[in-house]
Every structure is written in structure tokens, then in C-alpha cells.
Write a structure and sequence with these properties.
mainly beta; 64 residues
């Protein structure tokens, strides 16, 4: 089943745990949360480093 995702916003990621998160694209330490609306009131958060966060476009994206 394919789910449409619409980029909604980006914010600073504040790591509150002992295990830091890594960027979804390059495995560097994550510094940004990207939020995507997937419908039905559900949002998906993906974490990115500063550099990869710059490449996220405000457009529809698809996920499997």
C-alpha cells in the first residue's frame, strides 16, 4: 500500500535520550525533525542532519 506524504514543516531536533538519532539519508547525527502529513490526522517525523534537511522540498512525496 502506498501512502502520500506532504511535507509540512521542519524544526530543531532536541535529543533527550542517551542514544542519539541519526540522519535518515546519511547516518550523521540528526539535528532536524521533518514533519509530513500522511492524512487522517497522522503525522510522520523523520530526522535529518543540517545538510540533508536543506534538500527536503515542500512537495508531495511517496512512501511504500
Amino acid at each position: 500500500m502506498m501512502m502520500n506524504r506532504i511535507f509540512t514543516s521542519i524544526r530543531a531536533y532536541h535529543n533527550l535520550s542517551n542514544s542519539p538519532r541519526v540522519c535518515k539519508d546519511c547516518d550523521q547525527l540528526a539535528t532536524k525533525d521533518a514533519l509530513f502529513d500522511v492524512g487522517d490526522g497522522i503525522a510522520v517525523i523523520e530526522r535529518y542532519c543540517d545538510e540533508c534537511a536543506k534538500t527536503i522540498e515542500n512537495s508531495n512525496r511517496s512512501s511504500v
